[in-house]
Each structure stands twice: as C-alpha cells, then as structure tokens.
Amino acid sequence: MYAEVIIPLALPKNYTWSVPASILSQIKPGCRVEVELKNKKYAGVVKRLHPEKPQAFEPKEILNLLDTEPILYPAQLQLWEWISSYYLCSEGETMAAALPAHFKLNSETILVFNDEAGDDFSHLDNDEFIVAEALHIKKELKLTEVQQLLDSSHVYPVIKRLIEKKLCFVWEALKQTYAPKKQTFILLEPQYHDEEKLSQLLNEWSRAPKQMELLLSWIHLSRTEGGDVTRAGLLKKSGASDAQLKGLIEKKILRAEQRSIDRLNYLPQGIHIDFELTVAQQAAFEQINRSMQEKAVCLLHGVTSSGKTQVYIRLIEQAIRDGRQVLYLLPEIALTSQIIRRLQRHFGGYIGIYHSKFSQNERLEIWNKIRSGELKVILGARSALFLPFTELGLIVVDEEHDASYKQQEPAPRYHARDAAIYYASLYPGAKVLLGSATPSIESYYNATTGKYGLAELHERYGNVPLPPIVLVDTKKIVSKEKNKVIISPDLQEAITRTLGEGKQTILFQNRRGYSPYQVCEVCGWIPQCKNCDVSLSYHKLTNKLHCHYCGTVYPPLQTCAACGNHHFIQRNFGTERIEEHLEEVFPQARVARMDIDSVRGKNAHDNLIQQFELQKIDILVGTQMVVKGLDFEHVNLVGILDADSILSFADFRVNERAFQLMEQVSGRAGRKDGKGRVLVQVANTRHPVLAFVQAHDYRSFFEQELAGRRQFFYPPFSRIILITFRHKDKGVVEDAANLFANNIREPFGKWLVGPAEPVVGRIRNQYLMEILLKLPKDGQTIPFAKQVIRQQTAILHGHKKFRSVVIIPEVDAV
Length: 814
Known about the structure:
Layout: E1 2-6, E2 15-18, E3 32-37, E4 40-50, E5 64-65, H1 74-86, H2 91-98, E6 106-113, H3 126-138, E7 140-142, H4 143-150, H5 156-164, E8 168-175, E9 181-188, H6 195-203, H7 209-224, H8 231-238, H9 242-250, E10 254-261, H10 279-294, E11 297-302, H11 308-321, E12 325-329, H12 333-347, E13 351-354, H13 360-371, E14 377-380, E15 392-398, H14 416-425, E16 431-436, H15 441-448, E17 453-457, E18 469-473, H16 489-500, E19 504-508, E20 517-520, E21 537-539, E22 544-546, E23 553-554, E24 568-571, H17 575-585, E25 591-594, H18 604-613, E26 619-622, E27 635-640, H19 643-647, H20 654-666, E28 677-682, H21 688-695, H22 698-711, E29 718-727, H23 730-748, E30 752-756, E31 762-763, E32 766-776, H24 781-798, E33 806-811
Parallel strand pairs: 11-16, 11-17, 12-14, 12-15, 13-14, 15-16, 18-28, 19-26, 19-27, 25-26, 27-28
Antiparallel strand pairs: 1-2, 1-4, 3-4, 3-5, 6-7, 6-8, 9-10, 20-24, 21-22, 22-23, 29-32, 29-33, 30-32, 31-32
C-alpha cells in the first residue's frame, strides 16, 4: 500500500511514500505521518491510500504515524485540492495556510553523543571541548542549546568538526509543540463528603485558625461555583499561603488534582432569541428560505442599519435546531468583537471565535472542538474557512464585498467568499448567504441574472431615514500652509454641534501615519524608501519615517539630499495628524484613533470599540477599520476627510470601491434616531460616483458600472488572471515578462494586456512587471490558460537566466 502525502512545501505535485505493515491497519486519509524528504523530516497529511507503486522511483517508507484518528475530514482535503487547482498554487502551500502551527511539526536538529568516543577530549579546541563536555553529560543537545553554550549563532563549523571526529552524530527529530493547559483544583478528601463527618471535623477544630479559614473558604467556593475550586481561587479568597494549604493536604483533609482545561472560557449552551423580526425583515427571511430551496447561494442586499444581523441570527437558530453547524465569516477581526457579544447573548456557548490574533494553542483547541461537533457556530475571519466541520449547514459571508476576503501574500491567494461557496457544496444541503449593503458587482450580477437567490431590505430598522450626504468643496477653502484642509469650517461647525448634543463623531481618512510624504521647501525633493519606489510616511508617535510597503523605518530627515536645504513641508495628512489637529481644535473632546498602528494586541480592537460604545470617546478617527459593519447608537456625524484619494486609484474597481467605502462609512451615522449627517470633503465634486452616494442609490450605480465593465470586458463578463514577475535585476525581470508574454500571445493575444510596470515598480528591492489576462467565462478557456501558465512558468525557470525570477499568478485579482 502506498500513500500520497501533502507536506507544507511549495512542491509542483504531491509525493508518494510506502506504508509499513506496522501501521497499515491504523492509517487513514486525513491522518498526519512523519516522512523524510532530502534528509529533513516533515509532518505531512495523507491525502489518499492506493496500491499503485510509482514507476519513476523507489518510494521511501513512512517513518511514523502521528495520529490515531484523522485530524481532517474528506471535505477539507477536497477544499485544499480545489483551492490549489483554482488559484494556481500547491497543496502544500494550502496546507501551510490551513493548519494550526501545532499540526505542522518542524524538524529540529539534535546532536547525539557517540558513547564509543570515550571521555578524553584533550585533542579538541576550546569550542569543541565545551560542546563535547556538555554532550558527554546530557547525551543530547539541541542546536539552540549549542548556540547558547558557545554564545554564538555560528556553530555549524564546530558541529561539523565534532561529527568528523566521530564524537557525535546528528538526529533530526520532529518536535510536538502543543501542550494542554493545566490547572490545579482542590478537592475534599472522600471521607469528608459525608456532611456529618465534615461538621464533626469543624466542631472539633482547636488550632491553626488560618487553616480553618482556608477550609471554610473552600466550602463556600464549592457551593457557589458548582464544586470546582481552583488552587489560585482558593488562596485568593481565603488570603492563606501555600504552606497553610499544604498543611491541610498533609492532614488528608484536602487534596490537589491537576486537570487539563480550555484556554478559552465558554458560556453555557442555549438558544435565547429576545426579538421579533420586523415586517420587512420577516419578508427577507422568508425570501431567503424560499430561494435556498432551489439555489445554493443567496444574496441579502440590505441598506446600512436595516437589521441584516437579526436575519442572520434567525437563520443560525434554524440551523442549530436542525443539528447543523454554521460558519459566520467577517472580513476584519475588528468586527468580531461587537458581533460576538450579540451572538453570545442569543446562543451562549454554541459560539466560538477563530482568527489570527489567537495563540496557536487556542487555535488548536477550537479546531478540535469544531472537529468533534461540540461548537455549533464559528465566527471568524477568512482563515476560519479551513476548520474541519462535521455537519456544516450554513455559511454566512457578512460584508461579502470586502477586499479583505482576498488573501494577498503568501499563497494560496484565495478569495474566502468564493472558496466558501465551493466548500458548502461539499456538504449535503449546506447553503451560503452573502450579505452586504453594497454588494460586489459580481455578486449582484449573479443575483440579478438568477445564478444566486436575491432578498432585499430597502428600509432601515425602525424606518429610520438614511443620513443626508453633504459635499464640502475643498477647492473653495484655502489653508494657511497652502496644504490640503484637514477639517473644513463646515465640518468643524458640525462637530461642535454634535459635541454640544452629547453625540459622537466618526472621521474617516484612508491614510495612516502623520504625514503621507514630506517635500523639500526649495527643490521639491521627496524622501523615498531605499527598498521600494514609494515615498516615506512620517509617524510622529515614533518620530520616524516609515515605508508602508516593506516596513523599513528611517530616522527623520533634517537635510534635503538634493539641495542641502533644512526646511521640509508636510504634505497631505494621515490619521495621526488628524488626531493631533482635533486635540488642538477641540481640547475638551475625548479623541481616539483606530488604525493598524494604534490597535495592537489580542483585545485592543475590542477595548477601543467598547470604550466608544460606552460613550467614553467623543470623536473616533480611523482608516477602513471604522467603515466596516460597526454598529454605534450615538454616532450622529460622519466625516470623510479626503474623498479624492478614494476616487483616484488606477484600478478598474476604483468606482466600485469608492461607492462602497463612502456608503458604508455614511451608514455609521444616525442608526438609532435618524438624525445623522455625513460630510464629504472633496475637490472633484463633479465625480459621477458622488451623485449615487448622495442618493444612496446602489441599483443605478450598479447599472452604470456594469455598462462600463461590459464595454471594456472586465468582470463579471470576464475572469482576470494577473501574473506578476519579481527579480532584483530590472533588466532580467523585463526580459522574463516579455518572453512569457510572447510565448502565450498566440493562444491568448486578444485577451492579453502587458507586460507593463505596475504603479509601484519596486518593492523590497525586487523589480516588478505584470501581465493581465482578461479571459472569457466559457468553461474551457480558463482551465486551458491555467495549464499554459503552469507550463510556461516551468519553461521560464528552465532558462538559467530566469531561474531566480519569482512568478506569481493571481486568479480573480482584486
């Protein structure tokens, strides 16, 4: 018997190992096995077992079986295969993204002492002697331990000499890193479970009053906390010491017991729905159920604050009562904190969360609870898609239009919304609900042409009106510094009025940092990143210049590199500059900032959102984090500070993105009382998108955008594959892209755009070139194109000159 095994490497195909007789009865697809490839050991996943021996080579044996039961179900393996095939990557890359780190064991080098070498080390030099002595005592040393011994990371020459002198040999071991969390519980010895005996003990107690207090504390805690008393809780409650507790244990009155516990706390499971759907919500709910009888996917298009989440809650309740599991996807971790509290109120411990801010141990525990069917609903960002569900019945993709659902780096560059639709198809009867106030053009097109079901909510919850949107023409406002205006007089007046009413304000700016770029006052020179073709952003908090592409940080510049002048002008403004400006203009207001720089740590998002909900913050400034689906009762004013920056990207989706951003951010205003206002600061007031945003008219915007997409053959009428070439030499990357384009020009010439240099032509010292394929959706062309791309990539890498060129195909690029 042979096993096709997936290992977490970017290999062109999966390799085969032979199955030893000792594990033949236990091995199953989905189990992990220990295998060796090029003298390295890996924990791979068995994809399939088969009797066909490979013809080209003699397969090695599997070294070890790591799981007695599969950690994956067949549906996960099918999903990995589809993602790898559709998004042009390897199954190993998909495995690396899908599995928690503890399942991907790493090969760690261990030195083992050779007992036949004896204990005479007089012929060794100083470094060799130190390592040999330690090995003689400990018998085994990890590479990291050798580095600590010699106080150096360059230990390979020393190890090489010791191996050559036959003092030790190398053994590669797979390191299991997960350990269950342990907690000590204090229990009463069995003889005192009898109330009479316990009373007698307490009545006859004559000395050690502290121990008596400790015992009484244990009795109180055990009766109020359901019998489980932790050591830490008992010592805190009683104020006693470890020694006093030890005394009671030695007297055989109490005993200590170590138990494995969950790293995450769960509420009791239960369903508690305390609201009724409105007439409009009930109609949408029934429409969704009707369409799901015929179609696997339904789109819920509901204006901002129409109560889409309440419809989701009813559908989740339906799925739980049917014994099915639910996956609730959100584009941003920032959104999970608010929605999890709402869902926990209705479903308690049925709910779990899964995202990248959790530790690896916490992720593994959630993985196992999903696999066992213990958790019914998982709320998570795109990586939650890879969890091993047993009875998946519903996937809710909230804010389905959001670009964050598309993975950018590294591979697999999958779109979680589209992968979710495929994933649901692997479970009998499972359905997908896409929800958004501003659906993607592709999803709304699929819904209006009958591929998906469609349900719509045209009114806000409680018939609250949508906020009026006022354009503020920044061309008419001249600032003292001849720079862009941060807060216009109109917006300043509106903020003052909002503060006076005791309400809150959200200000949106799509740039973080203090100043997006600095300009020399004399010659106009702009500081650039040495690794990327972009200007540096100044961050006042760190007093450094930051590159937002490669992350390099530079000291602030005092002198112009071009003319030697010492005066720089700060151009444009980021969230940090706005925060400072607001503190100057509104000294009494409580101002906070929400961007990637200010919100760090596992609970930072949640803490900031809760502070805002409790009205401990008056003005919240933020990047896209403040736009997406957050629900605040007391926000009556929203300001978009620089709409021109949203409307002027070189991208065919620029109008769609701008409409979505502005409509979503305006939707944060007046959700409770309908007294919301939105002010948009913009120079290009005649931009066509602004009229649709002011009218809150998605349908008309969709029809106009669709006409442009049809004319220029962009999605949803075509499928896009973007091929990016990277290399440290500009000439090499240009030659590689031109050769690749020439080789595919014959079959795809009329759909080929490029090669061309992207807007940012160099990132991390790698020059970039791009080729764009706009392919018809006819069922044959796209699979053929993917096959050609794989072949041409292999051919190009066969050339010595182009071997080190990195070629990245991105399917459905966003």
